[in-house]
Design a protein that fits this description.
With 164 residues, the protein is α/β, with parallel strands linked by helices. It has helices at 10-22, 37-47, 65-78, 96-100, 123-131, 137-144, 149-155, 157-163; strands at 3-7, 27-31, 53-59, 85-91. The chain has a single domain, classed as 3-Layer(aba) Sandwich (Rossmann fold). A 4-stranded parallel sheet has the order 2-1-3-4, with helices on both faces.
Length: 164
């Protein structure tokens, strides 16, 4: 294991596991369980070994960007003593926007035009409208495994930042 990724919920975990699998990256995806930066710090301290990379993904759909940014900076600064490279990434709205970034590969047979997926206020509802998405670990993992990352990363800047 060379990377740990900390996410908010179980559907986020499923999507990120699928993306790591597509990239053949060995890693562990852990749930932060909501907007609790202290939980993320504890997860980093307990699982991150020297030389590893920890990525904290924080959705923007509930809080203003400046508060989310402050949470991520606090996590990064307090994790400096762990000998682990910690990176915080703000996910524009929600991880479902990453799946919407290549909706054409999922909604086969439908002509779909959604524009910038990271500007959709409730991407999970848009995904439900297009492909009958039920927000859970297994469905998110299934859909994320079908997206073409080279296309999706061009449309979702936070996904590109995560893949970089």
């Amino acid at each position: 294991m060379n990377v740990i990724v900390i996410v908010e919920g179980s559907s986020d975990r499923g999507a990120v596991e699928a993306i790591l699998g597509k990239l053949n990256i060995k890693g562990k995806v852990l749930r932060m369980r909501g907007n609790n930066p202290d939980r993320a710090k504890r997860l980093i301290r307990s699982t991150c070994a020297g030389g590893m990379k920890a990525i904290v993904l924080k959705d923007l759909h509930r809080l203003p960007e400046d508060i989310v940014s402050r949470h991520l900076k606090k996590i990064q600064s307090e994790a400096k003593g762990t000998m682990c490279n910690v990176q915080g990434i703000i996910v524009r709205k929600a991880i479902e926007a990453w799946i919407l970034a290549d909706i054409e590969s999922i909604a086969t047979g439908k002509k779909v035009k959604i524009g910038n997926p990271e500007c959709i206020n409730e991407p999970n509802k848009e995904l439900d409208r297009l492909v009958g998405y039920v927000k859970n670990y297994y469905r998110a993992k299934e859909l994320a495994s079908k997206i073409r990352l080279n296309i999706a990363r061009k449309r979702a800047k936070s996904l590109d930042q995560f893949l970089h």
